Amino acid sequence: MTENKMIILADDLTGANDTAIQFVKHGLNALVITTMQSPESVINASYEILSFNSDSRDMDESAAYTAIRKIIARLNTLQLKGKYYKKVDSVLRGNPGPELAALMDELDIPFAIAAPSFPANRSTLQQGMLKSGLSNTSIDAIKLFSSTMNKKVEGIPLEKIRLGEQLAADYVISRRSTGVEVFVADAVNDEDLAIIYRLSTLLDTKLSHFHVLAGSAGLANHIAKSQKSEKAGDIQIKPVFHSDNNFPVLLIAGTKQGETASQITTLSKKVPVKIVRFRTDLALNGRGEEAQNLAYKEASENMKNNPKLCVVVVDCMFETGIPEGDVVRRIDASILPAIVSLAKLAQALMETFLFKVIISTGGDTSLELCKGLGIQGIHPLAEISPGIPIGRIVGGSYENTYMITKSGRFGDENTFIEVMNFLGEDYGS
């Protein structure tokens, strides 16, 4: 029986990865389980932090609820015990309410505190309204949770949070007495998240029953700080790259998000590399192999001019993309066959050019890459910028090579320049 682990449940792969890296930054060892089909030997690996991808973001509410309960039941069967953290998307995409309810129901936990804010990536919650990035769109977080779970939901106003954890805890206890089961906490900066975490630990001493925390990588960072190991500090892996001038990098972007489109455009302007635009129209009309062959040929030609970097993106990122700052609740399912085809192309490119680093943008893209390459896990090593980790691949033919994952929304226009600089290439900023 394995005790005292932190078990993270995320609804997509990039979320599992960007949450696990928060603990690695503070000296703890972590493993991201790419899929629940991974063997028991991987799931039972001797890591302090295990982060699971439930791959449930695009399920309907009922299916997502069932998926989370099944995962927890399987972990119990494997006698994997520990404290759970329910990772939720920082703009509440997917099924945050049903999945949190599933965790509470399966583990018989009576109440929860959710703090989805991730200020480092421009996501904040105030008066129960979630705002993100440049968009003027607001999401009623309390309504979203309460309408999708059979539990009484209330907010913790920012003015209560900023009274400090002692008074905020008293407020939560008073509201608990009225039957509130899920609290959605306001937070507009990192110190607000720190107070929410301290509030949570204080409730452990004041109440006779357990609760569960849910939130973004931002809140997870404060949990990690409390478990800080004497090994704390980012693992320095830069010298691995600086000592090797011959490590080709493959960048695959299968998202339509405007933030990533801006980042790709900036990269192409600052780095002498041509962008291969993968023909989604062909892939979506049963001509995926043709789309792969065209992109493979173009990528191969590009590698002759720049053998260090190959960039392939879905063409619809630019043609029918999602404007920067916009929040899309679920992925456009119509693009999924193209993402699967894109992953097959990546596999062919890996076999030919033996890329040492894969940069993958978008949760579905990252997952399909892992499936195609037989990747069972990712061992996070360092955080390049907020929510963008690099890790070592576990399992498959490319074990011990590196993978960087990025949510389509994360980062600014210079993010890929920053990533390449981290890997040892000086492209300025």
Please sum up the structure shown:
It is built from 17 helices and 18 strands.
Question: How would you describe what is shown here?
Answer:
The protein is an alpha/beta fold and 429 residues long. 41% of the residues lie in helices and 22% in strands. The strands form two sheets. The protein has a 15-stranded mixed β-sheet, with helices on both faces. Strands 6-7-8 form a three-stranded antiparallel β-sheet. Strand 2, helix 2 (40-43) and strand 3 (49-53) form a beta-alpha-beta unit. The model has no long low-confidence stretch (mean pLDDT 88).
CATH superfamily of the largest domain: Putative sugar-binding, N-terminal domain
CATH topology of the largest domain: Rossmann fold
Distance between the amino and carboxyl termini: 48 Å
The name of the CATH architecture of the largest domain is 3-Layer(aba) Sandwich
Low-confidence stretches: none
Largest sheet: 15 strands, mixed
The average pLDDT value, as a whole number, equals 88
Beta strand % = 15-25%
CATH top level of the largest domain is: Alpha Beta
Please tell me how large the radius of gyration is.
21 Å
The class by helix and strand makeup works out as alpha/beta
How many domains?
A: 2
Instruction: Give the overall form.
Output: globular
Percent in helix: 40-55%
- The count of strands amounts to 18
Order of strands, widest sheet: 9-10-5-11-4-1-3-2-16-17-18-15-12-14-13
- Count of DSSP-assigned helices: 17
Topology:
Blueprint: E1 2-10, H1 13-24, E2 30-33, H2 40-43, E3 49-53, H3 61-77, E4 80-87, H4 96-107, E5 111-115, E6 123-126, E7 129-132, E8 138-140, H5 141-146, E9 153-156, H6 158-161, H7 165-176, E10 182-185, H8 190-206, E11 211-215, H9 217-226, H10 238-242, E12 249-253, H11 258-270, E13 275-278, H12 280-283, H13 288-305, E14 309-314, H14 316-319, H15 336-353, E15 357-361, H16 363-373, E16 377-385, E17 388-394, E18 402-406, H17 415-422
Parallel strand pairs: 1-3, 1-4, 2-3, 4-11, 5-10, 5-11, 9-10, 12-14, 12-15, 13-14, 15-18
Antiparallel strand pairs: 2-16, 6-7, 7-8, 16-17, 17-18
Helix pairs in contact: 1-9, 3-4, 7-8, 8-9, 13-15, 15-16
